[in-house]
Write a structure and sequence with these properties.
With 256 residues, the protein is an alpha/beta fold. The protein has one domain (6-255): Aldolase class I (TIM Barrel), CATH 3.20.20.70. The chain is 46% helix and 14% strand. The protein is built from twelve helices and eight strands. The chain has helices at residues 17-30, 48-55, 81-86, 97-103, 107-118, 132-136, 140-152, 157-162, 181-199, 201-206, 217-224, 241-255; strands spanning 6-10, 38-42, 61-64, 91-94, 123-128, 164-167, 208-212, 231-234. The chain has an eight-stranded parallel β-barrel with strand order 1-2-3-4-5-6-7-8, surrounded by six helices. Helix 1 (17-30) packs parallel to helix 12 (241-255) and helix 11 (217-224) packs parallel to helix 12.
C-alpha cells in the first residue's frame, strides 16, 4: 500500500513572525516540484495565521504544536481546535515528549486531545517514544505499546487511518544521537502491529508512521529506505531552509 510520506518541521519555541515568513518565502522556492512528499510546518502559535496566508497555493500544510481539548471556555492561555482551524491549520502535534516531560501531559490527555481535533477534521501527529533509562532497561516495546494503545483508545478505524504517528525516542531528541535505521524500522513496524491489533489492517496500512529524533540530511536516506518509515518529524534541522529542503529531497528520492 502506497502511503504519501510526511516531513513535518517542529519549530518548537523558535522564530518570530518575520523570521517565519522569510523561511516560508525561501522554502517555497527551494522545494518546487517535490509533490511526492507532504510537507508540514509547525511554527509557534504567534505565526500561524500569517503563515497560513503565506503558504497558500504552495502545497505545504500548516500544523500547530499543541492544542486544548475544549472548543471554548475559561481556560486562560490555551488554544482550542476551533481556533487552530480558523488560523489555517491542518495538522496538530500531540503528546510530544517535551509536553509530557515539562507540562505533565499524560496518555489520557493525549487521547482527549486527539479526539477533540479529529472532531474538527484536523490530523493529529501523535508522538510516542521511550527515554534513555527505559531503553537501557529493555522496556522500549512496553512503553511504546502503552502510549500507542492509550492514544488510539476509543477511535474508529477510519479515524486512525488518517492519523500520523511519530516514533520519537526521547534519548535522540536534540542530542545528535539517532536510532539506527534498523532499530527505527523495528520499533515503527511494532507500532504498526499495535495499530493493526487495535484498529484493523486498513488502519495499519494507511496510518503514516514517522521517525523523529536528530533527523538531518546525512541520516535521512538510510531511514527512508525502510518500508515502514513514512517520513520524519524534524526538530533542529527544520529551522534552516537548506537542511530542511535537503531532508525533503532525500525523502522524495527514497520513497519515489
Amino acid at each position: 500500500m502506497s502511503r504519501k510520506p510526511v516531513i513535518a518541521g517542529n519549530w518548537k519555541m523558535f522564530k518570530t513572525v518575520p523570521e517565519a515568513l522569510a523561511f516560508v518565502r525561501d522554502i517555497r522556492q527551494t522545494i518546487v516540484g517535490l509533490e511526492h512528499v507532504q510537507v508540514v510546518l509547525c511554527p509557534p502559535f504567534t505565526a500561524l495565521a500569517l503563515m497560513s496566508d503565506a503558504l497558500r497555493g504552495s502545497g505545504i500544510s500548516l500544523g500547530a504544536q499543541n492544542v486544548f481539548w475544549e472548543d471554548k471556555g475559561a481556560f486562560t492561555g490555551e488554544i482550542s481546535p476551533v481556533m487552530l482551524k480558523d488560523a489555517g491549520c491542518s495538522y496538530v502535534i500531540i503528546g510530544h515528549s517535551e509536553r509530557r516531560q515539562y507540562f505533565g501531559e499524560t496518555d489520557e490527555k493525549v487521547n482527549q486531545k486527539i479526539k477533540a481535533i479529529l472532531g474538527h477534521a484536523l490530523i493529529p501527529i501523535m508522538c510516542v517514544g521511550e527515554t534513555l533509562d527505559e531503553r537501557e532497561a529493555g522496556v522500549t516495546e512496553k512503553i511504546v505499546r502503552a502510549q500507542t494503545a492509550a492514544g488510539l483508545d476509543g477511535l474508529a478505524p477510519e479515524q486512525v487511518a488518517q492519523m500520523v504517528i511519530a516514533y520519537e525516542p526521547v534519548w535522540a531528541i536534540g542530542t545528535g544521537r539517532t536510532a539506527s535505521d534498523e532499530d527505527a524500522q523495528a520499533v515503527i513496524a511494532y507500532i504498526r502491529d499495535i495499530v493493526r491489533e487495535q484498529c484493523g489492517a486498513a488502519a495499519a496500512g494507511n496510518a503514516r508512521i514517522l521517525y523523529g529524533g536528530s533527523v538531518k540530511p546525512g541520516n535521512t536516506a538510510g531511514l527512508m529506505s525502510k518500508g515502514d518509515i513514512d517520513g520524519a518529524l524534524v526538530g533542529g534541522a527544520s529551522l534552516k531552509v537548506e537542511s530542511f529542503a535537503e531532508i525533503i529531497k532525500k525523502t522524495s528520492e527514497a520513497k519515489r
